[in-house]
Each structure stands twice: as structure tokens, then as C-alpha cells.
Design brief:
Elements: E1 2-11, H1 17-34, E2 37-43, E3 46-53, H2 55-66, E4 71-82, E5 93-97, H3 111-114, H4 120-140
Parallel strand pairs: 2-5
Antiparallel strand pairs: 1-3, 1-4, 2-3
Length: 153
Amino acid sequence: MIYQLAYMSAARPGMRDAEVHDILRASTANNRRDGLSGMLLLVDGTFFQVLEGEKEKVEEAYRRIAKDARHSALLRVLERTRDERSFPDWTMGFEKMLHGDPGGDIMPVDAGDLTKNPNVELLRKQAPEILSFMRSLYASRNMRGAPELERRA
């Protein structure tokens, strides 16, 4: 069985692309070493990341990530076991999306407020939909071994 953990967090304001590339380089090396796979999505200053592999290795990576000052207010939104990996060929896939004016200020989701928000359970319920979107990105890149997308009941 594969353990899968998804979390979201707020990127540090003013984070540059070079810092994101540093995160990706380190994550790729660490994940390859630890047998993990996953994807990092950066949307308007908010990170959504999925890690998958052996449970202890995923939890170890999450503890390491939690100490990183380049983001704050980590919020676990999904934890589950699966028969197969969602991102089998990616030690760390990545996608960045901006919905605001690329030349203007992007206001990230304030994940710190989300942790205190009584509607946070709604966010957790949306996590599988975000994960399905990430898997569709994975499949659209013709990755070998891309699993079937989950169908909504």
C-alpha cells in the first residue's frame, strides 16, 4: 500500500522563482533518495503538495518541509492509503498558476486564517478534487504509468 499525504501552505510573500527552483531541486533529490513521488502546485502564492510512498518516509519529509521558512501555516488536507501511486514517474512534478495580473500584486490565500476557519472541513473535502486536477496534469503530459483518473460518484 502507498501512503499519500496532501497539504497546503502559504508561500512566503515575495518568493522568487529561483527559490521555488531550489525547493524543486532539493525535493527531487530527497524524494529520489527516499523512494517518494508527488507533485507541487503553486497557485497565486499558495502551495498544494502531494507526497506518496512509504508512510514513515512521507512523514519524515513532511516534518522536514514543516521547518522550511519559505512557507507558513501548513494544513494537512488529505491522508490516505492507495493501491498505487498517483504520480509514479515524478519524484516531484511541478505546476505554477497565476490567476491575478502577472505584473501586479498576487494576494495568496491566507492559510494561517484557514487553520482557524470553522469551514476548514470544506477545504479538506475539496482536496480530492485538487488532487484529481493534479493527476490530470500528470496524465496530459503523457507520463508512462499515469493511473486512471478517479470518477466522481
